[in-house]
Write a structure and sequence with these properties.
Elements (H helix, E strand, L loop, with lengths): L5 E8 L9 H15 L4 E3 L11 H4 L6 H10 L6 H13 L2 E10 L2 E9 L5 E6 L22 E3 L2 E7 L6 H8 L5 E5 L7 H18 L2 E5 L5 H7 L3 H4 L9 E3 L15 E8 L1 H9 L33 H4 L5 H24 L1
Parallel strand pairs: 1-2, 2-3, 7-8, 8-9
Antiparallel strand pairs: 1-11, 3-4, 4-5, 6-7, 9-10
Helix pairs in contact: 1-4
Length: 349
């Protein structure tokens, strides 16, 4: 009988600092250290936690979001940069894998990005949310298929999706097909109300069952004081409460420990990795339970780029050719051009 492998993980539900540029990062570093002191080897933070989730975009009309959107630009994270260096150093110091949600700034655009640092501080994955949801589309650009991948870490094979990406079954299947063992889920928290928390729970429990993996999910938290500062309108404030479901789910779809649905805290649990085989023995949705000859997924995992540069013509004179000297080379090139021109003129008659 193989020795049982246990992995201790932590899901962090704390409030961001909505005021100061480095305040949330300081809280992240402190939480990593605290989780490590509790024995955690994987620490998961909420969606776009650094510097903060753009709650303003959910309760402000578009014309009133400009100042806060610009402030988010000013405090967003460059990758690599000082924020990633600080998190990498803390991960390395504590010997833990860290999954962190950030607002990434890439020149003139912001992206909802997920970062996974290995226990030695190496940044293994930077991925961008492929489709921002509803109000978020005014804030972030779209990611691409290059981020839909699972990475080998000190705690196992880890994949990640943000929020309603979990409603895209093909995105989830792309990670499932890469045999993720621990799935990182990140949601904003303090949003929409209890219905959002209920939906999160259903979604992450279903993914655990379907993928046959553990799910570690973190949601954020806002204090009443923070909610009051975001919006002076009590009707709008109702949309900034509830929606918290920090949870750790087994491959059998069950909570490993009771979820954290209000207040700040760090949820810690030991994952019995043998449960993955126990589940997949019965139902491996990308293996013995799959029918790839009937149903399969096509994934374009190339990074999207606004410009692709190709060379359409190569001068043989510049690369070494069979021509004898520059004069012969020039005459042959001129002849080739004259011939093509003659063919085109003939075709046009």
């Amino acid at each position: 009988m193989a020795e049982k492998k246990l992995v201790r993980v932590a899901a962090v539900q704390i409030a961001p600092d909505l005021e100061t540029p480095t305040g949330t990062l300081d809280r992240v570093l402190a939480a990593i250290n605290e989780a490590a002191e509790k024995g955690a080897k994987l620490v998961v933070f909420p969606e776009t936690f650094v510097p903060w989730y753009p709650y303003f975009s959910f309760v402000f009309p578009p014309m009133l979001t400009g100042a806060e959107h610009v402030r988010l630009y000013e405090n967003a994270v460059a990758v690599p940069g000082p924020v990633t260096e600080a998190v990498a150093a803390m991960a390395r110091r504590c010997g833990v894998v860290v999954a962190l949600g950030i607002n990434e700034r890439d020149h003139g655009s912001l992206y909802n990005a997920q970062l996974i640092f290995d226990a030695d501080g190496t940044l293994l994955l930077k991925r961008r949310k492929i489709t921002p949801t509803f109000h978020e589309r005014m804030i972030w650009g779209q990611g691409d298929g290059a981020g839909l991948k699972v990475v080998d870490t000190a705690v196992g094979r880890v994949g990640a999706l943000a929020c309603w990406e979990h409603y895209n079954p093909l995105a989830r299947y792309a990670l499932m097909a890469q045999h993720e063992e621990i799935h990182v889920a990140q949601f904003p928290g303090s949003l929409v109300g209890q219905v959002f928390a209920d939906q999160i729970e259903v979604t992450i429990r279903h993914h655990a069952l379907e993928s046959g993996c553990f799910v570690v999910n973190a949601t954020g938290w806002l204090s009443e004081e923070q909610i009051a500062k975001i919006s002076p309108d009590e009707k709008m404030r109702r949309g900034l409460r509830g929606g918290c479901m920090t949870a750790i789910i087994s491959p059998e779809g069950a909570h490993v420990v009771p979820p954290l649905t209000s207040g700040e805290g760090i949820l810690v649990a030991d994952l019995d990795m043998s449960l993955i085989v126990k589940r997949k023995r019965m139902m491996d949705s990308v293996g013995h339970y799959a029918r790839p000859e009937l149903l399969s997924l096509k994934l374009d995992n190339r990074p999207a780029a606004p410009v692709e540069t190709t060379t359409s013509f190569e001068n043989p004179c510049a690369t070494g050719s069979e021509f004898d000297g520059a004069d012969n080379c020039s005459r042959d090139l001129d002849g080739a051009v004259d011939q093509r021109v003659a063919v085109l003129r003939g075709a046009s008659r």
